[in-house]
Amino acid sequence: MTALRLLAAAFVIHLLLVLPPAPMPATQALIRLSPELPLILLGLALLGRWGRLLVMAALLLLAVQKIADLAMISALGRPFNLLTDVTLIGSGIELLAEATGGWRLLAMTAGVAAAALATGAALWWATGVWARRRWRPSHRLALCLGAVLALGGAWLGQVWPGNGPYALARAEVLGRTAQDLRRIRQLAAEDPLAHAPGLLSAIDRDVLVVFVESYGRASFDVPFHAGRHLPTLRRAESRLAGAGLAMRSGFLAAPTQGGQSWLSHATFANGLWIADQASHAAVLASGRHGLFHHARRAGFRTAAVMPAITRPWPEAATMGFDRVLAASDLGYRGLPFNWVTMPDQFTLAATDRLLRDGAGPPHLFAQVALISSHAPWVPVPDLLPWDRLGDGRVFDPMAVAGDPPEVVWRDRDRVRAAYRDAVDYSLSTVMDYALLHAGDPPLMIVLGDHQPAPWVAQDGGPDVAIHLIGPPHLVDRAAEWGFQPGLVPAEGSTAMPMDRMRDLILRGFGGKLPQA
Which residues are CB-contacts of 160 (< 8 A; sequence separation ≥ 6)? Predict the structure, then answer.
C-alpha cells in the first residue's frame, strides 16, 4: 500500500511537470519524461517539511508560467515573458470579456479558480506523502543516484530530446531578455541618420502610413483567406491602374503576432526591432528620432489618427506627432462595433476632414491605424458612398446586425470566417479611398501590423503585407527595395524585417535613390 501511495504521489507531481507549455495532444504530453522529477522527489525525502514548502512554491510557480505560456502561444504565437508581458494581462482580460461576454468570463474565471484549488490540494497531498515518510539510507542513496542520472541526461540534452529542464530554459529566456534590453538602449542611442540632410526631400505631397489591423500573409497563402482577399486586391489593382496610380507590394516580417499592434508601429517608425513592451519603453525613453520626427524636421505636418485610443496616451508626446486624433476627436456619433469604436471608412473620411481638407502646404505625414479588422471581427460594416457618412449614425443598423461576439466565438470556423470578412472590408475601404483621391493622390504606405492568432490565420508565420500606392515617380522608388509591381506580391516572396523600413523610406525618398 505504501508503495502505491508513493507511486500515485509521484504521478501527481509528474502530471504537473509534463504540463505542456505549448498546445499538443494530451497523450503526447503524458508520455514525456521529466528530468526534474527525481530531483524533486529527492528534495522532499531529504528536506522533509521545509522541502515540501519549497517544492510546493516552485511547482505552483511553474504551473502558472506554463499556463501563461499556453495562453500566450494560443493568442500571440509566443511564450509568456515575465519581464515584458505582465502589462498585457489586463488588456487580454478586457478583450476576452468583449469576445465571450461577461457571464462566460465569470464562469471561466470560476472554473480556473476551482482548478487551481484542486491542483494545489493534489500537490499538497502528493508532496506530503514523500516528505513525511521516514526514508532508509539505502532508499535515499537510490534517490540520489536517480537524481544524478536525470540531471546528467538533461544536461547532455539527448536523453529526453526537447524536454530538458523547463525552469532552466525559462531562466535563460529572462537572461536573454535582459541582454536584449541593454542592447536596444544602445542601438537607440546610435542613430546614423539623426542629423542626415535631405531625407524625404523628394516627396511633394501628403504621405499616409496606413496600418490595417491583423492583415498578414495568410491573406495570400492560406486558401480559406486568399480565396476572398486576392480577388479583392486584383480588382482594386485594375481600377487603380486605370486611374493612373502606381502600386508596388511586398512582405515584411513583423515583431509580433495576434496583438500588440503598437510594437509593429514602433518597429516601423524607429528602425529597431521592438518585440516587447520593455523594449518599447526603452526606445521611447531614449530620445531616438523615428520616422515622424524626421518628417517634422523635413517640413511636414505630422499626425496620428488612432480610433482605438480611448484613454490618455502620454507616450505619444515622444513619437514625433504634432497632433494626435484619438477616438473622441474624430467626430463619430454612431454606435461602436463592439470593441471597434468606428468603421475604417469613417476613420479615413475623418482624416480628410480634419487633416487634409484644403490644408495646403506644408504637406501632411500621418499614421492612420485602422481597426475594423481587429478582434472580435463582428459585425462587419458595409462600404458606403463617401458623401453619405455624416457623423457616423448611418452605420448604426450595421453595428447591431448579426450574432454578437459571444455567440460567434463559440465556433472557431465562424471566427475565421468573420476575420476573413473583416479584413476584406478593410482592404476594400483602403483601396476605394485611394481611388477616391486618384486625381491628386497622396503617397500611401499600406501595411499590416501583424497576423491574427495562429489558429485564426492558419499560418504560424509573422509576415505581413505592405503596399505603396500613389504617383509613379514616388512609388517606383520602391523597386530598389525589392517590392514588386501591383498589389499581389509574387508567391514565395521573401519578407523583409519591418525594422528596415524607416531607413529605406528616409533615404529612398531623399534627393536621390539610395545605393543598392
Answer: 32, 33, 34, 35, 153, 154
Q: How far is residue 185's CA from residue 179's CA, in Å, rounded to a whole number?
A: 10
CB neighbourhood size of 102 (10 A):
10
Residuewise pLDDT in 10s, the chain (516 residues): 577 877 787 787 777 777 766 555 555 555 566 667 777 777 677 666 777 778 778 777 777 777 777 776 665 566 676 555 665 566 556 655 655 656 666 776 777 677 778 877 888 787 777 677 666 666 566 666 665 555 555 444 444 434 446 666 666 666 666 666 667 667 666 788 888 888 999 999 999 999 999 999 999 999 999 999 999 999 999 999 999 999 999 999 999 988 889 999 999 999 999 888 777 877 877 778 899 999 999 999 999 999 999 888 878 888 999 999 999 999 999 999 998 999 999 999 999 999 998 756 799 999 999 999 998 999 999 999 999 999 999 999 999 998 888 889 889 999 999 999 999 999 999 999 999 999 999 999 999 999 998 889 988 789 999 999 999 999 999 998 999 999 999 988 999 999 999 999 999 998 654 443
As a whole number of angstroms, the distance between CA 408 and CA 416 comes to 10
Q: Give the three-state DSSP class for 370.
A: strand
- Read off the pTM: 0.71
| Cβ contact 468:249 at 8 Å | yes
Provide φ and ψ at 426, rounded to 5°: -60, -45
One-letter amino acid of 186:
Q
What secondary structure, in 3-state letters, does 15-61 show? HHHCCCCCCCCHHHHHCCCCCHHHHHHHHHHHHHHHHHHHHHHHHHH
Angle, CA 417 vertex, CA 416 and CA 420 arms, to 5°:
90
Cβ(193)–Cβ(506) below 8 Å: yes
Rg of the chain over CA atoms, in angstroms? 27
| DSSP-derived pairing of the beta strands 323-326 and 301-306 | parallel
- Taking 3-state DSSP, the helix, strand and coil percentages for the chain, each rounded to the nearest 5, stand at 55, 10, 35
